[in-house]
Amino acid sequence: MDIDARGPRFGAAVTTVVLAVVLITGSPWLLAWQTLAFALGAAGGPGRSPYGWVFRRLVRPRLGPPVAFEAPEPPRFAQAVGLLFAGLGLVGLALRPEWLGLAATGAALAAAFLNAAFGYCLGCEMYLLVRRVAVRVE
Question: How far is 85 from 101, CA to CA, in rounded Å?
């Protein structure tokens, strides 16, 4: 079943703010929260992340009906990619080297910002590329 395309973009906007605060403060606890949010989104889809819940319960009822829908698989894959980068960032910030934490968090921030500001989902594009390559290999 397709999802409201505004939901993942809302989640990306919240993620952008959270990751920016992580880079400013260096807080491994806040990055741990974001890592959990990515893990829930990767495991259950974007609607199962905390930001998906907020969108569904608090934001979407105040918006008009959705006009654009998308398949849930690409955003779910994007959440898994975010989980990978946030996990690396968490290791770097909590255990060192700090540069790893900052670089991985910065990469996740850049991807989230692209989605939030321009509607360009890097993880979704990676999903489509992987699917095309997998079809050619079969």
Answer: 9
Place of tokens 């690409």: 74
Place of tokens 């654009």: 68
pLDDT at 138: 75
* Residue partners of 38: CB distance under 8 A and separation at least 6: 49, 79, 80, 82, 83, 86
Q: Summarize pLDDT for 80-117 with one digit per residue, the tens.
A: 999 999 999 999 999 999 999 999 999 999 999 999 99
SS3 assignment, position 4:
strand
CB 41 within 8 A of CB 77: no
pTM beyond 0.70: yes
Q: Are 89 and 132 in contact (CB under 8 A)?
A: no
> CA-CA distance, 127 to 74, in Å (whole number)?
6
CA distances from 94 to 25, 32, 33, 86, 98 (A): 13, 10, 13, 12, 8
pLDDT band at 135 (very low <50, low <70, confident <90, very high): confident
